[in-house]
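re: that chain from earlier
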Amino acid sequence: MPMRRDDAETLALGALGWIASDPDRAGAFLGASGASVEDLRDRAADPDFLGFVLDFLLMDEASVLAFAESLPCRPEDVMRARAGLPGGDLPNWT
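^ sequence. v structure.
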């Protein structure tokens, strides 16, 4: 079940802060997103951008686990938050 959008945005902002707190992670994120440090500030309230933040985090299980432990939240909450943001809905194959 997707997380409510405001809760999903809050979790994604936490993920952005967690990513930015480590120079290696931040560099990888900036490289993957094509964003600048200024873009991070400007787009932090953009739900589409926050969805990308969670997409980036979800690419590495170890990062999801470390982030979830730091918050604390359950690792599956990251996926629920992603489902609550634009572009995160899962296709219905039936």
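The longest helix spans residues 5-20.
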